[in-house]
Amino acid sequence: METADYLLDRPPGGWESLATKQDLDALAERMDLRFEDIDRRFEEVHRHFDEVHRHFDAIDRRFVEIDRRFEEVHRHYVEIDRRFDEVDRHFADVQQTVRGEIGRVLEAVDGRIAAAFATQLRWVVGTMIAFFAVFVALLKL
Questions:
Q1: SS3 for 66-124, per residue?
Q2: Is 11 in contact with 17 (CB distance < 8 Å)?
Q3: Cα 18 from Cα 76, distance rounded (Å)
Q4: Domain coordinates in residue numbering, the chain
Q5: What is the model's pLDDT at position 109?
Q6: Interatomic CA distance for residues 117 and 98, integer angstroms
Q7: What pTM, to 2 d.p., does this model score?
């Protein structure tokens, strides 16, 4: 086929299906507008993600602060447990000391009671002997 024949042949979709430079320029302009709109939307999405990242950073800082506070509370509880253990040991020592003192006091009281009882018993027995002696003497009269 020669060049002239080629130009005179009709394209498969007809001459109206061929794009002109103006059509291509208009298409390019529409595409540019669409891409600009897409770029604008991506910029909005990026701004939104930046805001989300800032929120997550703030939340992360809060969690770090909460972790620090929990560690501080934990240290306080460990110190309180140590103090309770110390108090328990002290009370055990006091209990042992008190038991020893009570034992000594009870022994001393028991000794005094025994001595007082023996004295009183001697006095009662002596008084009874004297009473019987007087009674016997009175019976003999």
A1: HHHHHHHHHHHHHHHHHHHHHHHHHHHHHHHHHHHHHHHHHHHHHHHHHHHHHHHHHHH
A2: yes
A3: 83
A4: 3-107
A5: 87
A6: 27
A7: 0.45
Give pLDDT < 70 ranges for the chain: 1-17
Residue 40 structure tokens: 């604008």
Give the three-state DSSP class for 38: helix
Amino acid 72: pLDDT: 96
CA atoms within 13 A on the CB side of 103: 6
The CA distance from 136 to 141, in Å, is: 9
Q: How far is CA 16 from CA 20, 30, 59, in A?
A: 9, 20, 61
Question: What is the structure's pLDDT at 106?
Answer: 87
Q: Is 14 left (phi over 0), alpha (psi -120 to 50) or beta?
A: left
| Whole-number pLDDT of residue 114 | 87
User: By 3-state DSSP, what share of the chain in percent is helix, strand and coil, each rounded to 5?
Assistant: 90, 0, 10
Count Cβ atoms below 10 Å from residue 138 Cβ, excluding itself. Answer: 8
Task: Please report the pLDDT score of residue 136 as a whole number.
Answer: 86
